[in-house]
Specification:
By secondary structure, the protein is an all-beta fold. Helix content is about 0%, strand content about 50%. It contains no helices and 22 strands. The strands form 6 sheets. Strands 11, 13, 15, 16, 17 and 19 form a 6-stranded antiparallel sheet that branches. The protein has a 4-stranded mixed sheet with strand order 2-10-9-6, with no helix packed on it. It is elongated, with a radius of gyration of 24 Å. It starts with 7 loop residues before the first strand and ends in a 5-residue tail after the last strand.
Length: about 280
Amino acid sequence: LTVGPPTLQSIAVTPASTTITTSGTQQYTETGTFSDTSTQNLTSTGTWASSNTAAATIASGGLATGVGAGTTTITATSGTTSGTTTLNVTSPGSYVQGTVGDSGGASSQTTTTTNPVVTGNLILAFAHWDSASPIATVGVTDQLSNTYTPVFLNPINTNTTHYFQVWYAKNITGGAQLQVKVSFSSSTTAYSVLDVMEYSGLETINPLDGAISNTGTGQSENSGNITVPNPNSEIVVGMFGFPSSAANPYTVGAGFTARPNNTRGTTFVEDQSALTAGT
């Protein structure tokens, strides 16, 4: 009876389905499972490859480096056996997805993201509601127990019946479609709009550098100035609402990109990466 050495049966590449920013890095581990059920770390001896080097490159030893926004498949090979995982690369301060919902006159509104959110990203929740008498927001929650902080201390009143407020959740717990809920102290009249946006590549401890708000009427609205202290790593987001059920009569500012807005035409969101410091 001749007994040979155990043979390699499969390879697992971890972590799975990660996201980094351009110039960011991700260390991968290659673990082989053998015919005798034993496992072995093959990270330093395996051959590594990236299917899309415009998104990320990977060095011997399994260290991937982000190059540009995109998705790539990371493959680790030992002999004739290989394993793969997916790496997403985003630009710093990148918009990921946006969803909006409106339950009409109601005491709450839950807006669910189209795709699962990614752990570590940032969520912005922008609410617009109306009421003949002032009503307060009880707060914003989601099913993954992320914490939402109001950007402004109190809701912004644009006229006697329409109100807006913004919250953010930093360094979120992800992995599922996020169900974001805003609750009111009583029922709204006709609108309970909640825009939910996900951004990646932002500061996870103190992401908010500044915020300003203004109200007005006419064809051109101006929030006022904020200062960008850290260009190339920040994003400027504008959230705009108006008390009308008509089609959206506005266009975004120069250099901004419009994001998904309410089909009833009462809110929209725009953003752009900050390239230079200043006002």
